[in-house]
Amino acid sequence: MVQDNLIVRCPKCGAKNRIPRSRAGDHAVCGKCRAPIPTNAGFPERPIEATDRSFRSEVLAFPGPVLVMFWAPWCGHCQRLMPVFAELASEFSGSVKFVKVDLDKSPATASENQVLSVPTLLLFKTGRLVNRLVGALPKNQLQYHLRTVL
Fold first, then answer.
1. The one catalytic residue among 10, 30, 33, 78
2. Strands, DSSP E only, in 56-119?
3. Which residue range(s) make up the domain with 102?
4. pLDDT tens digit sequence for 110-141
5. pTM recorded for the entire structure
6. What is the CATH number of the domain that holds 27?
7. Which member of 10, 13, 30, 75 is catalytic?
8. Fewer CB within 10 Å, N side or C side of the chain?
9. Count of CB atoms within 10 A of residue 82's CB?
């Protein structure tokens, strides 16, 4: 069983700290400098799934940057982009939250965000859409777009 972790940067020294999601409510301290760290703004270390019901809380209400990938199981480009998306989630853990939305399971969210083709990547910052990327872009281009919002 893979444990779902949050990655939280220490406000004092900037070190990344891994906290199991099941212990997110506990009082956490930085593993490097022992300063208290907030766990309410954590970034999972891998992409999480969102649905029509959870999109607002996972993406729009999140205080930091979020990259959302709208995908479909039948889409070949989506299947090729999925491992790159997971690599980026690990690389940018502590800075960007990564969310996947299955187009077939969440049609209302796709419609609200005007997703007309897959894969479509939407970059949100504090709940506002700041960039829209359509198609399976190479990893270096995705890295560039993510760095522009950090």
1. 78
2. 65-71, 97-102
3. 45-149
4. 999 999 999 999 999 989 999 999 999 999 99
5. 0.78
6. 2.30.30
7. 75
8. N
9. 17
